[in-house]
Amino acid sequence: MAIESINGHIKLNEELEKHGLSTDDIHKLLTVLINAKRYGFDGKEIAEKLHDFKFLEWKEKEFKDKRKKLSKRMSKFKDVLPLTEDIAALGIGINELLALKIGINEAAKYYNLPFASAAMRLIDDIKRYNKIDGLKKELSTLYMQKYTVNQFCFSQNKSMRALINLQSLGITEEQIISLSNTLIGNQSSL
Fold first, then answer.
1. Distance in angstroms (rounded) separating the CA atoms of residues 89 and 82
2. Which of 21, 107, 146, 157 could be bridged to 25 by S-S, CB 3.0 to 4.6 A?
């Protein structure tokens, strides 16, 4: 019986060492459990709560590690992060950013440029396109003005030819003006 007790004690010490405890800790643990039982707590419930507590400590450590990793990762982009608020305020979402990225990648392939240079080239292309678009609008306005002038000149040219034809028939300028005034007077009486 004494050998079994000694073997049990040795096994208990080995088990305690695995968990970083000693026999001194057993006395403290027993005191806690006895006092808890006196106040109506169940030993199994305490053990479960301790397990939950250990689990929560482990989760907390895991979250802290993840937070450190995320903070390190975010520090790489600290110069870019303030711009994200500006981008979001402009109504630019992930779809628009992906489209921009695709455009830059296409420019990089097309012009055989590195990504940063392709981005600048794409911006230059957009500026050039906007200039061309502005010039097209201006050209369209000029075409309309030219058309208006042509119509006016055509009408005046037609009137001049008619005047020359009438004068070639021997009708004087004064007769033409008198005839015009008569026609204008008759039109207003209709």
1. 12
2. 21
Res. 190 pLDDT band, cuts 50 70 90: low
Helix, strand, coil proportions of the chain in percent (round to 5)? 85, 0, 15
Taking the C-alpha atoms of residue 67 and residue 61, their distance in angstroms, rounded to an integer, is 10
* pLDDT, the chain, mean: 83
Query: Are 33 and 43 in contact, with CB atoms under 8 Å apart?
Result: yes
Task: Give me the mean pLDDT over the 167-185 stretch.
Answer: 86
Give pLDDT, residue 65: 92
User: How many degrees, rounded to 5, is the angle at CA 17 between CA 15 and CA 22?
Assistant: 100
